[in-house]
Amino acid sequence: MSRKVYIFDTTLRDGEQSPGASMNTDDKLIIARQLLRLHVDAIEAGFPISSPGDFRSVQKIGQLAGDDAAVVALARAVEKDIDCAAEALRGASRPRIHTGLGVSPQHLREKLRISEDECVERARRSVAYAKRYVEDVQFYAEDAGRADQSFLERVVQAAVEAGATVVNIPDTTGCQLPEEFAARIRGLREHVRGIEDVPIAVHTHNDLGMATSLALAGVREGATQVECTINGLGERAGNAALEEVVMALRMHEDALDAHTDVVASELTKASRLVSRVTGMQVQANKAIVGANAFAHSSGIHQDGVLKPRDTYEVIDPDEVGAQGSELILSARSGRAALRHRLADLGYSFPQTEFEGVYRRFLEVADQKKEVFDEDLDSLAQERERDVSAVYTLSSVQVVCGDVATPTATVRITDENGEEHVAAATGAGPVDAAYKAIDQVVAVHGDLHEFVVKAVTRGIDAIGEVTVRIVASGGAVYSGRGSDTDIVVSSAKAYVNALNRLIRTERGDA
Ligand code: KIV
Ligand code: ZN
Questions:
Q1: Ligand positioned closest to the Cα atom of 102
Q2: How far is the CA of 486 from the centre of ligand 1 (A)?
Q3: Rounded to whole angstroms, what are the CA distances from 318 to 373, 411, 426, 508?
Q4: Whole-prediction pTM
Q5: What would the pLDDT profile of 170-189 be if each residue is shown by its tens digit?
Q6: 285-296, pLDDT tens digit by residue?
Q7: Index of the ligand 1 atom closest to the CA of residue 17
């Protein structure tokens, strides 16, 4: 049996640091459920001191995960961060504090303004301090990729002596070559006393497009934890993509003497979910999960895959759950069938909320002949999003066409149950609907991105709209909406983004 490599998912922390990918607690819980279905070993749920929302997310995910995964909270190497992380993790069965500081000359000189000796001392003190709260303390040596190797070894030695249970070696700026990074891990294993009993984690960024190669280079040298994100989301060019790391380890298990316990057939679903929730589109040619990852267009390739598939395909699409969508339910299906299929897809709703999902399902089933899993995903997520809405769009009606002035009338219910009606004209039906919504909702965001996508096949497909709006302070919020009518999807997406803006400004996101 090969070595187990632990998968540490940081979609909800480093991934969330992607500009415009901010998630509220409900969004994070939706993704955390899918991470548990993937069987990741650790979920980094947030940076509790950074905001009440992150604190709440760590708390809730800690309760959700139970014994199924370690739940990790980030804390800089300062006592108030560690206190806050420990408090957020109080209800978790497998809490882990992830603390550390910069170790490169750039970080010591420009950011922290401390000497090497002070850095070593802070590493030692922060690990020891976190150990007062939890047994599982992971130490990170930020910007290890640009650190002096012997100094890195000194800092890691201090963390190990203070009781770190994992040491995380990040190439924070994604600047290393795989062989350079491998040499760092080798050096640590050769020179740090006691490191043989402490797992080494690799945390790599994609600034040169090599995050996955760097992570694998670390694994080859003995790292047994890889930190990664779904779709490679993350700061700047992102982190190592979980789906790439998992599939590369599956394919090269013998060469690398390493495997993971991730359920690969859940990868495509995880990718689509994260893309939907964050509003960050996946490029079509993205490895493993891109829309074209298993598409063949040239005649020679098409001929090849029609013979044995592996002529041009090294991964069976079924292995990563990328098979075509499945026809399952219709307008004649009852509540039991819907509940059963939703459970298969990983959704469960209390009876009161389920009724709302069922009503929406019937509306969609009335409009479409075939209801696919993706439609159900979309409905279920729409419901999960709406539960905490400040404003709910009850209806939208438009008049448009090449001779009419586009006009929209919207009906919106606020959180106190009061209904508001507004009408406006605009350059097109969506513009008119947005102007009408602006008359009701107290806040405004400038529209910066508007993407329409068909969720399933056919002219009657559900159209999903993702918008990105920018609030007056510069923060970016995404919103999504889905319906068989794309003007309705567009209006829902805008209201969803405004709800997120309001909840964040109120401090209850
Ligand atoms: O990239 C990095 O160094 C990080 C640390 C906080 C682990 O994300
Ligand atoms: Zn990072």
A1: 1
A2: 40
A3: 16, 44, 46, 40
A4: 0.83
A5: 999 999 999 999 999 999 99
A6: 999 999 889 876
A7: 8
